[in-house]
Amino acid sequence: MLDPRKLHLLRELSRRGTIAAVAEAVAFTPSAVSQQLSALEKEAGVPLLERTGRTVALTPAGHLLVEHAQAVLEQLERASAALAGVRGGLSGPLRVGAFPTAARVLLPPALADLTRAHPGLVPMLSEIDPADVSAALGAGELDVALVHEYDFVPPVTDPSLETEPLFSEPIYLTNRPSIAAAAADPWIAAKPGTLCYTMTIRACQAAGFDPLVRHHLDDFDTVLAFAAAGHGIALVPRLAALAPPPEVRLTRLPLSRRTLAAFRRGYEEHPAIRAAVAAFRSASTLLPV
């Protein structure tokens, strides 16, 4: 019989690419991960990994088993959700991930409502970039997370995750009437590799130019402070610009950022996840967007 815990490690290896990355994600030592994967190979009766020096790759049989492992792990999630549904009142930790603006604006009232309705539930919040959410949910580091999508940036799909849309908000441009009017200006953007950075670059390219990014800043309060001091032009979502400095003029653009709740596939009917998503949605109806 194949061990689901070892299947989980194999799935993580297919996602993360190295034994060391899997070990860090699941809080094991690299040698313990290697031992578990070797034991899984014995259970499977076929080679699952190809080892070349310090690198490890999945064999065709390994890739095949990962596909089946995904289905098995989803069924186990559904079983866990079903059992939680018959136990009665919700209790225990609920690990929530969120990007900074959602953590600051949406989650304080949402988590307050959640704990009032379910006093035994203990929400535990971690700020996280949406690009890292898939790995954190897959590794069991988070139970539910808030992620976002931008125009000009195709959504990142992960077959092991489910998402539910919550709300949409407009994007604003600082101190210029249009993106095209800022073609010669220095720009402020998030760090490369983030969705916010990609959105800024592609929005400018759609206006006919490649922006000169002078500052890479992830915190929107800092972005607005730099814009107020004349250090560059930026695109900011509505939730990040509820109280801009008086020196910053905001022009609403026909662009949007959409926020979604994300969780592991098979976990969608878990009562704690349903309660959390309901609290997020309720709080979102009160947002000034």
TrEMBL record:
<feature type="domain" description="HTH lysR-type">
    <location>
        <begin position="2"/>
        <end position="59"/>
    </location>
</feature>
<dbReference type="GO" id="GO:0003677">
    <property type="term" value="F:DNA binding"/>
</dbReference>
<keyword id="KW-0805">Transcription regulation</keyword>
<dbReference type="GO" id="GO:0003700">
    <property type="term" value="F:DNA-binding transcription factor activity"/>
</dbReference>
<comment type="similarity">
    <text>Belongs to the LysR transcriptional regulatory family.</text>
</comment>
<dbReference type="InterPro" id="IPR011991">
    <property type="entry name" value="ArsR-like_HTH"/>
</dbReference>
<dbReference type="InterPro" id="IPR005119">
    <property type="entry name" value="LysR_subst-bd"/>
</dbReference>
<dbReference type="InterPro" id="IPR036388">
    <property type="entry name" value="WH-like_DNA-bd_sf"/>
</dbReference>
<keyword id="KW-0238">DNA-binding</keyword>
<dbReference type="InterPro" id="IPR000847">
    <property type="entry name" value="LysR_HTH_N"/>
</dbReference>
<protein>
    <submittedName>
        <fullName>LysR family transcriptional regulator</fullName>
    </submittedName>
</protein>
<dbReference type="GO" id="GO:0032993">
    <property type="term" value="C:protein-DNA complex"/>
</dbReference>
<dbReference type="Pfam" id="PF03466">
    <property type="entry name" value="LysR_substrate"/>
</dbReference>
<keyword id="KW-0804">Transcription</keyword>
<dbReference type="Pfam" id="PF00126">
    <property type="entry name" value="HTH_1"/>
</dbReference>
<dbReference type="InterPro" id="IPR036390">
    <property type="entry name" value="WH_DNA-bd_sf"/>
</dbReference>
